[in-house]
Design a protein that fits this description.
It is built from 15 helices and 16 strands. With 484 residues, it is α/β, with parallel strands linked by helices. The chain folds into 2 domains: 212 residues, Acetylglutamate kinase-like (Carbamate kinase), CATH 3.40.1160; 157 residues, VC0802-like. The longest helix is centred in the first third of the chain and has 28 residues. It is globular. The protein starts with 12 loop residues before the first strand and ends in an 8-residue tail after the last helix. The protein binds aspartic acid and magnesium ion.
């Protein structure tokens, strides 16, 4: 890192990496300058495509503006746009001193914000916010941050160009959570970006967004810039993707809950995906999908501490510490159980229960059924609880009345903890060790699930037991010793 000799530029390697910077990594002028330094160091060694998020907090503000407009509050929306303009212009003023470059970026930012204002005015007039308009508004943050970052890179003496991903990433029409069409994305990205790289220009691409084949702007879902980075990594056959964020990598547990948590040097795609699913918010859950096939490694690194090596995510990572790699917890879970002895004779209870959860679009996190079939219970995020229970009461109204289903029970103060590790498979005794340790600690287990893939054991406990459960297991599996 950082040891680049002056003549290395002429014999630049043909390797290519995609570097993505999250919202906190471009959160203000100082952070952007730090990111630009990392980009410049990287781009002097090898070809480098940059993907950026909006400055932290900006996407939330934009969504707030859209919602205000939807209620008819045009001036509220305009006030948010004004404050965003102030925020970006302040950052620009401290990053770019030279008049001409500064004017150009300023012009670009004003055009983008003007578009935003018009979308909000239209929305306020109609009091109607389509998912398509929401995408157009919520993606403005990336369209503002990319020119800022490109300008900061130029300040360090490199050539750079901000590019909107509507030119690169082709998606379906599912606004708010669009999926890429990889073949077309590949064609467009290569045609647009490779010639720039050839000429030594560092492309800075807006994360989070894409466009349908007709050119309608779409977004990939909240936190989707990680996904943008791996989509581009796959489309360009990159050698690696680096996600620069504000933590040292993937940790053995949430450090706010377990102070001894350590960075994991290497982890497999599967493990990382399990962790993302179970609430370790380091990666967008879909991030690894595009690169899995080609086996492109993905790094998680800390832009605030670039001297740290971070975590490398590879197809098949080595195992450390008896197969268990990390612990994770999802809080704010509600456990719902449908049951009573009467359901034994009702073979379709399972089917009807989960058609109901699907109908109300509740995300089911864990399912467990006792083999006596007296009870099916499942965990969902508490935000989905009300609509789910309502749906189930409706679905089983008659059965409840005739006492075929005895109860639909709701327990709101629940958490799910998962013990994750790909190589747990085939190592007997991990479940035993887990529950033994928890028993000694006096943690009451409400339900247990293990997938047949054996990459995680998850269990349901009371919310208040999360911290003791994590700490005990962290010690039990020697995770405090895992790194180094
Ligand atoms: N700016 C978007 C969001 O906040 C995308 C991202 O940051 O990954 O959801
Ligand atoms: Mg993010």
């Amino acid at each position: 890192m950082g040891k680049v000799s002056a003549d290395q530029g002429s014999e630049m390697s043909t390797r290519l990496k995609v570097m993505k910077f999250g919202g906190t990594s471009v959160g203000n002028a100082e952070c952007i300058a730090r990111a630009a330094k990392i980009i410049a160091d990287g781009a002097r060694e090898q070809r480098c495509v940059v993907v950026v998020s909006a400055m932290s907090g900006v996407t939330n503000r934009l969504i707030e503006a859209a919602k205000a407009a939807q209620t008819g509050d045009a001036s509220g929306a305009a006030a948010i746009m004004d404050s965003l303009r102030g925020q970006h212009e302040t950052a620009l003023a401290s990053l770019v001193k030279s008049g001409q470059e500064r004017d150009q970026v300023l012009q670009k930012m004003r055009t983008v914000l003007m578009e935003g204002r018009r979308f909000c005015e239209g929305t306020a007039l109609l009091r109607e916010l389509s998912t398509r308009t929401l995408d157009a508004i919520s993606s403005l943050g990336e369209r503002l941050s990319a020119p800022l970052v490109a300008a900061a890179v130029k300040q360090l003496g490199l050539q750079s160009e901000a590019i909107e991903a509507t030119e690169l990433i082709v998606t379906d029409e599912f606004h708010g959570g669009a999926e890429p069409q990889m073949e077309r994305t590949r064609e467009k990205s290569q045609a647009r970006l490779l010639p720039l790289l050839e000429r030594g220009i560092v492309p800075v691409v807006t994360g989070f967004l894409g466009a349908t084949p007709n050119g309608d702007l779409t977004t990939l879902g909240r936190g989707g810039s990680d996904y943008s980075a791996t989509i581009l990594g796959a489309a360009l056959d990159a050698d690696e993707v680096i996600i620069w964020t504000d933590v040292d990598g993937v940790l053995t547990a949430d450090p706010r809950l377990v102070t001894e948590a350590k960075t994991i040097p290497e982890i497999s795609y599967r493990e990382a995906a399990e962790l993302a699913y179970f609430g370790a918010k380091v990666l967008h859950p879909k991030t690894l999908r595009p690169v899995m096939h080609a086996g492109i490694p993905v790094w998680i690194r800390n832009s605030f501490a670039p001297e740290q090596t971070g975590t490398k995510i590879t197809p098949q990572a080595q195992s450390v510490g008896g197969g268990v790699k990390a612990l994770t917890a999802i809080r704010d879970v509600t456990l719902i159980s449908v049951g009573g002895p009467g359901i034994v004779g009702l073979p379709d209870v399972v089917g009807r229960t989960f058609s109901t959860t699907a109908e109300v679009r509740a995300n089911v996190l864990l399912i467990s059924q006792s083999s006596s079939q007296n009870d099916i219970c499942f965990g969902i995020s508490s935000a989905d609880a009300e609509k789910t229970v309502e749906g189930l009461r409706k679905e089983f109204a008659q059965d409840l009345e005739h006492e075929k289903v005895e109860h639909i029970r709701v327990d709101p103060h629940i958490a799910i903890v998962a013990v994750v590790g790909q190589n747990m498979r085939g190592i007997p005794g991990i479940a035993g060790k887990t529950f033994n340790a928890l028993g000694k600690e006096g943690v009451n287990i409400i339900a247990i699930a293990q997938g047949s893939s054996e990459t995680n054991i998850s269990f349901v406990i009371e919310e208040q037991s999360v911290v003791p459960a994590l700490r005990t297991l962290h010690r039990e599996f020697g995770l405090d010793r895992a790194a180094k």
